[in-house]
């Protein structure tokens, strides 16, 4: 009985350590930020965790040096650079707790355990329905065959047993 109690205590201690490590990583991720300035210094962007824009500063010269469409493009590029900086900090933070073979960028993108064919864009055609295009999957065997989902077939297999 004492052996089991010791095992349970050790498991609980491991759980508490893991939970505290997770909380610490979550705090670090929440504090991630990135900042970038345009090459001419007229635009500065600050983004937070996940690349969310937190602050944008435009100097007085920004309006004089750039036409509106140029300034808009400069803002987009500067915000993207700040987001890339924040993403690098996110990857560094995650890499301290992930197995060495895990790519933090792929994990954040949601593709860590997928092959490129599983997340690459599929064959789709765009159908114009006004302002927002709708996408419809193009299927080579578009016929009237009813396809069973894997879930339905699994449920049927369980009922048969």
Automatic annotation (TrEMBL):
Tell me the organism.
Answer: Lentzea roselyniae
Spell out the Basic and acidic residues composition-biased ranges.
Answer: 146-161
The family database entries (Gene3D superfamilies) matched by this protein are listed as: Nucleoid-associated protein YbaB-like domain
This protein's name? YbaB/EbfC DNA-binding family protein
Q: InterPro entries, from UniProt?
A: YbaB-like_sf (IPR036894), YbaB/EbfC (IPR004401)
Assigned keywords, A-Z: Coiled coil
The segment annotated Disordered runs over 116-161
Coiled coil regions in record: 1-35
């Amino acid at each position: 009985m004492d052996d089991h109690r010791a095992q349970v205590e050790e498991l609980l201690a491991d759980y508490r350590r893991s939970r505290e490590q997770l909380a610490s990583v979550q705090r670090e991720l929440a504090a991630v930020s990135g900042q970038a300035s345009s090459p001419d210094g007229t635009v500065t962007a600050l983004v937070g965790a996940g690349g969310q824009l937190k602050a944008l500063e435009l100097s007085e010269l920004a309006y004089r040096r750039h036409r509106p469409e140029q300034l808009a493009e400069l803002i987009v590029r500067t915000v993207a650079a700040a987001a890339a900086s924040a993403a690098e900090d996110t990857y560094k933070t995650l890499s301290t707790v992930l197995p060495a073979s895990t790519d933090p960028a792929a994990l954040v993108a949601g593709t860590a355990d997928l092959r490129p064919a599983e997340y690459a864009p599929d064959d789709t055609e765009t159908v114009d329905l006004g302002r927002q295009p709708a996408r419809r999957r193009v299927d080579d065997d578009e016929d009237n065959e009813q396809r069973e989902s894997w879930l339905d077939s699994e449920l049927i297999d369980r009922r048969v047993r």
